Amino acid sequence: MERPNLDYIKEISGGNEEFEKRFLTIIQNEFPKEKTEYITQMDGDNLEESATIVHKIKHKLGILGLHEGYRLAIKYEEDLKYGDTKLKDEFNEILTSVEEIISNIA
Amino acid sequence: MKSIIVDDEASARMIVAEFCKGVPNLEVLHEFPNALEALKYIRDHHVDLIFLDIHMPKLTGIDFIETLQNPPKIVLTTSDKNFAIEAYQYPFIVDYLVKPISRQRFEKCMTKLEMAFAASEEIPIVSKQENPEEDLYINIDRRLIKLKFSDILLIEAKGDYIEILTLQKRFRVHSTLKKIKDKLPTSRFLQIHRSYIINFTQIIDIQDNSVLIEKSVIPISRSNRPELMQRLNLL
To answer: Residue A23's closest chain B neighbor by CA?
Structure first.
């Protein structure tokens, strides 16, 4: 499974470590909320709302350099709009992986 | 050049703000987590440029654009490539940045903006034309029936069907609310509930959490209420 990386964040920061720290704090704050919201909506079988959250999470996957995850999220978001949840397990694995990584970033 | 950033994701706003720091003569006046706050702000403040997300709760970027009377230049920032064609229908949309935005792509956008601002000084601004389509054809028993937008009162979702109530009669069509919503002009129609789109020019009154249109009382969902209130010409 691909691993998240900080290449994009370093590109934005232009080497500004202060910015990188602030940015990662925001991601550490936003991502768990989005994940919780996604799980709540999925548990409630609200697939259209789930697709909306996947849309936001997709951006985070791109930020963290998860190109395969990003592509899967694009497909999953569209599938959800049509009531198709077959990519749920794969997407959930990505969420778990991202959560582990970002919680361990200092 | 005075700009604002409108995006419900704090991380997305931070990226654009950071890119803007490196651009001479570009000032970010304010950042907004939703379009409604941005709307209030631009009523009272001059803004040359808006970095605008499309997918936002309550009021989407496209709905926001539709409410602007004298829109400034807009750069759309989105994770969705599907709106590109729709976006370029608006002459004031200068660029369409797909997230995550690279620094190189942002710099290219700044060049486009410079050219757009230079051109707008030379060429009179042409206002956005009204949608030339004023009607909609629906398929009823293999007949295509023309409905004038102005005659449609409301549309209700009913399982796999929608019911279109017009001034003259009610039509039952095999379609979804989402599909018909995409065909309707946002200047006239608004979804106010998961199951209802209304022609808000036909509202008789609004009381508590419902609107009266002809003889129908339609519920307003809590999430759609702010957008409806925003559209009304309140005294």
So the answer is: B11
Number of domains in chain A: 1
Tell me if A96 is assigned to some domain: yes
pLDDT of residue B120: 67
Length of chain B: 235
Per the structure, the complete domain to which residue A31 belongs is given by 7-104
- Residue B135 pLDDT more than 50? yes
Asked: is B135-231 a CATH 3.40.50.1170 domain? The reply is no
Q: How close is the nearest chain A Cα to the Cα of B104, in Å? A: 10
Helix A47-63 to helix A17-43 angle (10° resolution) is 160
A13 within some domain: yes
Query: Is residue B78 pLDDT above 60, yes or no?
Result: yes
Q: Between these two residues, B140 and B172, which has the higher pLDDT value?
A: B172
Task: For residue B83, name the pLDDT band (cuts at 50, 70, 90).
Answer: confident
Beta-carbon separation of A59 and B99 below 8 A? yes
Residue % of chain B over a pLDDT of 70? 93
Q: Cβ–Cβ of B19/A58 closer than 8 Å? A: no
Instruction: Please report whether residue A66 resides in a domain.
Output: yes
Q: Residue B91's pLDDT band (boundaries 50, 70, 90)?
A: confident
For domain B2-122, say whether CATH 3.40.309.10 is its number.
no
In a domain, A1, yes or no: no
**Chain A nearest-CA residue for B22:** A14
Please tell me the number of Cα atoms within 13 Å of B156 on its side-chain side: 14
Alpha carbon of residue B202 to chain centroid = 20
* Cross-chain residue pair B18–A19, CB shorter than 8 Å: yes
Dihedral of CA atoms B33, B36, B39, B44 in degrees, nearest 10, equals: -90
pLDDT digits (tens, 9 = 90+) for B195-219: 999 998 889 898 878 999 988 889 9
Q: How many CB atoms lie within 10 A of CB B182?
A: 9
Name the residue ranges covered by the structural domains of chain B.
Answer: 2-122, 135-231
